[in-house]
Design goal:
There is one protein chain. The protein has six helices and no strands. With about 130 residues, the chain is mainly alpha-helical. Among the domains are: about 30 residues; about 50 residues. About 15% of the residues have low confidence.
């Protein structure tokens, strides 16, 4: 069922408002997180082999073989859904960052959200 013209306008206004309020979030939501098909192929093959080992371990009463199969299945699924690490940093590029203190300190998620909330409230009061 298509959206009415009013609903389309409201949706477009919401999109514009989101992109002006939080461009980083809007960018994250609009990016296509496409993973290469080879990741999924490796995960499927690993899961099938793991399932086969699990069944064989149960058939031959070999707990170690079943455990190995379970671990392989779990690792395959984790590999498929893990974020691919596209950024490769060399020792030469990491050294200037550490020397200049440009690394962000590790903060909890809630602390970052509270900071952003406070920052927005301060901007709104002006």
């Amino acid at each position: 069922m298509p959206l009415s013209e009013y609903e389309q306008r409201v949706l477009e206004q919401m999109e514009r408002h989101l992109s002006t309020d939080d461009p980083r979030l809007a960018n994250t939501l609009t990016q296509r997180g496409r993973r290469p098909a080879t990741r999924y192929a490796v995960a499927v093959v690993g899961s099938i082999v793991g399932l086969l080992l699990l069944v064989l371990g149960a058939h031959y009463s070999a707990a170690w073989l079943g455990s190995l199969g379970f671990v392989l299945m779990f690792a395959s699924v984790a590999f498929a859904f893990a974020r691919p690490n596209g950024r490769r940093t060399s020792a030469t590029s990491a050294a200037p960052q550490a020397a200049s203190g440009a690394r962000r300190s590790r903060r909890t998620f809630m602390a970052r959200m509270e900071e952003r909330w406070d920052h927005r409230r301060e901007q709104g009061d002006r």
